[in-house]
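Q: Given only this backbone (512 positions), what sequence would you predict?
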């Protein structure tokens, strides 16, 4: 749904949603402001042209809304959610709100949610339970749920039925309407629900409040059209739509001028970047080739889909410079049969051929991945194929998960005959291999000098600094606080399973 469709939909009577528990009739209210999510609508992918809006602005009558008020945002999930939170914070501050780290002092609390796995939803509903007494103490407090969970019908229905104290629910596509949603919540005595299920717009010029000035995220595209059978993201994030390259290049140049040391390009499937442009042949490889000329030390991207990872992108990445050769390349399973059930649209052989091409072009490239174990009806032999693929590729590390059914996805309807104890045992075996190879890879760093982007103090010891290498290896070492925000050379003295300990050998690295 775009802005025009939203206005049209407001003229259509919404479904009757009566609060059965209280017997109160909300239908009249819902006719005006209730816009529920629909997975059926979310799956529809039209070929309508993506609309660009460069005219974002706060309506004049709402500019003073936040005066004397504070906001608190709790973020769950991926970097995309973190990026959305930066935008939400930017809008709040343009409205006059001030940020706070305390829920107790906040006038508005937003939970920016993730829908990838069931336990992510459990955390959010647990947090809502903790917020209920706070709302009772302070009735004027506004509580909102936004992000990916808000795009799910079942989640919105659960909130409507069991969490009446929530004031706002809005989705991933209409973050830019936060001023209007807040205004509606302040004026209304009932819950404000606005979730767009179909999306074809790109909103530029949104304000952002970034965390620090060392590492920055730049969204290059939105949505996903892959529809893997286990994944809710294409429903919650909408169809694939790319930002124009000139907008991205300008944003990266601006961040470089501000002194940022590392940029991560974000997208649900960054390798599909540009495929929706109707007027030119332009992909991620072309974008990276232009960004490598900008004076910023490090540029990386996430997340990749193996099917869309083309030869030209490999050719450009092989040029090196500020383009990092650490690639996150989710495989999900080492079995072609399971990959087919997952609708990943590539085979084990295709994946291994892609890895071969990457390593041939970039011999020192490091690969990380995502793997799901216990997908419906996965056999022992198929799981063994995953173990053998992991050993063959020798990933530096992996995010590993037990399959979590998401309501509304095709996989949730599949018969699952694998006992949970078997799934847990497989995950344990996989993690043993992951840990073994990770330790082996890190051991190779001992005695070597690496360049580390220093992010700050170690979480465990304020006297120790911590930062990441270009291959995303966490290094802890002692150094003066003046090194924070700089790239320094560190000699690795000890390798652990997941981190490295080192000694700084010189203060800074000059980046050419």
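A: Predicted residues:
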């Amino acid at each position: 749904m775009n802005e025009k469709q939203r206005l049209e939909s407001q003229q259509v009577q919404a479904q009757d949603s009566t609060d059965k528990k209280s017997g109160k009739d909300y239908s009249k209210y819902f006719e005006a402001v209730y816009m529920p999510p629909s997975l059926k609508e979310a799956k529809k992918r039209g070929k309508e042209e993506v609309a660009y809006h460069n005219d974002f602005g706060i309506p004049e009558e709402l500019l003073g809304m936040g005066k004397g008020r504070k906001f608190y945002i709790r973020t769950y999930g991926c970097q995309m959610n973190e990026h959305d939170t930066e935008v939400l914070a930017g809008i709040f501050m343009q409205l006059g709100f001030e940020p706070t780290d305390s829920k107790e002092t906040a006038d508005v609390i937003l939970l920016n949610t993730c829908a990838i796995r069931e336990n992510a939803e459990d955390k959010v509903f647990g947090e809502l339970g903790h917020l209920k007494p706070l709302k009772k103490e302070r009735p004027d407090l506004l509580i909102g749920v936004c992000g990916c969970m808000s795009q799910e019908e079942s989640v919105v229905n659960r909130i409507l039925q069991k969490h009446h104290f929530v004031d706002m629910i809005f989705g991933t596509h209409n973050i830019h309407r936060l001023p209007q949603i807040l205004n509606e919540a302040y004026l209304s005595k009932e819950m404000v629900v606005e979730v767009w299920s179909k999306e074809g717009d790109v909103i530029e010029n949104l304000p952002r409040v970034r965390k620090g000035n060392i590492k920055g995220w730049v969204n290059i595209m939105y949505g996903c059209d892959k529809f893997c059978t286990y994944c809710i993201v294409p429903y919650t994030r909408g169809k694939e739509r790319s930002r124009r390259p000139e907008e991205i290049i300008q944003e990266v140049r601006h961040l470089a001028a501000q002194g940022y040391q590392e940029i991560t390009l974000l997208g649900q499937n960054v390798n599909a970047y540009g495929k929706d442009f109707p007027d030119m042949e332009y992909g991620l490889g072309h974008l990276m080739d232009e960004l490598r000329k900008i004076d910023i030390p490090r540029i990386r991207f996430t997340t990749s889909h193996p099917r869309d990872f083309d030869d030209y992108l490999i050719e450009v990445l092989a040029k090196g410079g500020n383009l990092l050769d650490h690639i996150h390349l989710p495989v999900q399973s080492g079995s072609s049969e399971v990959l087919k059930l997952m609708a990943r649209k590539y085979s084990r052989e295709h994946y291994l051929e892609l890895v071969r091409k990457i390593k041939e072009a970039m011999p020192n490239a490091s690969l990380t991945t995502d793997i799901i174990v216990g997908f419906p009806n996965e056999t022992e032999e198929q799981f063994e194929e995953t173990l053998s693929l992991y050993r063959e590729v020798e990933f530096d590390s992996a995010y590993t998960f037990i399959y979590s059914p998401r309501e509304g996805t095709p996989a949730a309807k599949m018969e699952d005959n694998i006992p949970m104890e078997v799934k847990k045992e497989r995950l344990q075996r996989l993690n043993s291999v992951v840990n073994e190879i990770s330790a082996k890879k890190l051991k190779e760093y001992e005695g070597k000098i690496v360049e580390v982007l220093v992010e700050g103090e170690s979480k465990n010891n304020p006297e120790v600094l911590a930062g990441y290498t270009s291959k995303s290896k966490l290094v802890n070492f002692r150094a003066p606080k003046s090194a924070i925000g700089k790239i320094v050379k560190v000699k690795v003295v000890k390798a652990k399973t997941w981190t490295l300990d080192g000694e700084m050998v010189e203060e800074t690295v000059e980046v050419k």
